Amino acid sequence: MHATPEPEGNEGALAEALHRLLPFHFFYEKEGRALPDFRFCEGREVPYPYRSLLVHHNDMTPTLAAFHHSKLYLEVHRREANEDYLLRLVTLHAAASDVPVLFGAIGIHLVPLTESVREEVVAGKTPLGGILADYAVDHHGNPTRFFSVPADEWIADALRQDVGESLYGRCNQLLDSDGMVIADIVEILPRSTESERWVGHVTR
């Protein structure tokens, strides 16, 4: 795994990378799977249309819902929890088409949430972003890294991609109005070939 912004062999960079990927890395380690070859990059290096979907401080749930013209629903693949913290490996789907629009992992800090919000989150029926919006919880995104990654079998199966397909994503945090972390998230998007063709057409 080369998930480092520095040359391979830099143990400090590797540790920092694994920290950024922690919600995702947790489930891979638990399953005994090797992480795919994450490559960190700057936001300006992410190509369109993925740059417009990733390089911003908005919540991903409404961003993807607007892009796909559909409400999203949550599919939970793996789950670990205690009273304070909830970890999930998930796919978000466009409800109108059932198409997967995001695969990733999220670690949610439960203690700062109100009882009603916490119950909704633990139930696992609705994406976190949708719950925070429904309960008017003031929050914003804080992307900490962007990356490209070749789809391994787990990612490819969840996003209906070919194994080895180069995908883009980000390591993100959701922060409350005081700057406290609500959630740590790793988000990977599928390829959007129609949008890629449109971008290629308008930039020619």
Topology:
Blueprint: H1 11-20, H2 22-31, E1 39-41, H3 50-54, H4 60-68, E2 72-81, E3 85-94, E4 100-109, H5 115-123, H6 128-134, E5 139-141, E6 145-150, H7 153-159, E7 166-176, E8 181-189, H8 193-203
Antiparallel strand pairs: 1-6, 2-3, 3-4, 4-8, 5-7, 6-7, 7-8
According to CATH, the homologous superfamily is Chorismate lyase-like
Helical coverage, percent range: 25-40%
Rg (C-alpha, Å):
16 Å
Q: How many strands in all?
A: 8
How many domains? The number is: 1
> What is the name of the CATH architecture?
3-Layer(aba) Sandwich
Q: Provide the β-strand percentage band.
A: 25-35%
Low-confidence stretches: none
Average residue-wise pLDDT: 90
The CATH class turns out to be Alpha Beta
Task: Describe the 3D structure.
- The protein has 204 residues and is an alpha+beta fold.
- The protein has a single domain (11-203), classed as Chorismate lyase, CATH 3.40.1410.10.
- It is 33% helix and 30% strand.
- It is built from 8 helices and 8 strands, in the order H-H-E-H-H-E-E-E-H-H-E-E-H-E-E-H.
- It has helices spanning 11-20, 22-31, 50-54, 60-68, 115-123, 128-134, 153-159, 193-203; strands at 39-41, 72-81, 85-94, 100-109, 139-141, 145-150, 166-176, 181-189.
- Strands 1, 2, 3, 4, 5, 6, 7 and 8 form an 8-stranded antiparallel β-sheet that branches.
- The N and C termini lie far apart (36 Å).
- The mean pLDDT is 90.
